[in-house]
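Thread: Dehydrogenase, structure

OP (GT): Posting the sequence first so everyone is looking at the same thing. Length is 250 residues per the record. Can we get the structure tokens written out before standup tomorrow? I want them in the notebook alongside the other entries.
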Amino acid sequence: MDRWKNRVAVVTGASAGIGWAIAQALLKSGMIVVGLARRVEKIEQQKATLAANLASRLHAYKCDVNDERDIVAAFKWIDSELKGADVLVNNAGVLKDTLLTAPGNTDKIKDVINTNITGLILCAREAYQSMKRRQVDGHIVNMNSVVGHSVPIGVDTLSTYNVYPATKYAVTAITETLRIELLNDNSKVKVTSISPGAVRTEIFNDPDLIASNIPFLVPEDIANSVVHVISTPKHVEIKELTIKPLGERF
């Protein structure tokens, strides 16, 4: 991680769970971290709990990845104040009850699609433009899921979140398409998809899911994986990393 010291990492959805764990891990690795979140006050509250040497390198910026104007403004601020982004961790995501045949859930469906797909694409676009302008050897990490590779048919506790796997399948395709685009652009920027199994965070707040015997990872497992994929030698690109808790059946 030496080559990343004092360079800038942007983490979306950084106010809690996996995002906050990733932000801390990157700070401890010597990076400057910009945490993007709608609930930016939560990042500020947690910043107060950090050691002074870590807190001084954490910047909280209010950004709703559903809003293109927010995304563009955030990266403009990063370019202006911190010279630009070197690493992007596209972590922001939502999981909502989106049964495909249920009436009246259009807003929920749009929110899941806009956050998990459109927001991810726009953040990657803006981050890459920042990296390209400075010709840096950056890294874009897209937070995917095991359900972005196989729909868990028959897993009752996930049976109502039906748009979510579709959005994660999209992340699988988007990540590979982006990697090819960057190759065609003769870019030094790496692209990685990280696909965890179930992680114990507030996104899994369904009582039935919590009460089930599904094994869970913890946010720090994913944060450690982010550090691993960006710390590989310059000639090594981890294209896809799948992480499952021991005993997971899907």
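GT: Both are above now. Quick notes for whoever picks this up: The mean pLDDT is 92. The two ends are 33 Å apart (CA to CA).
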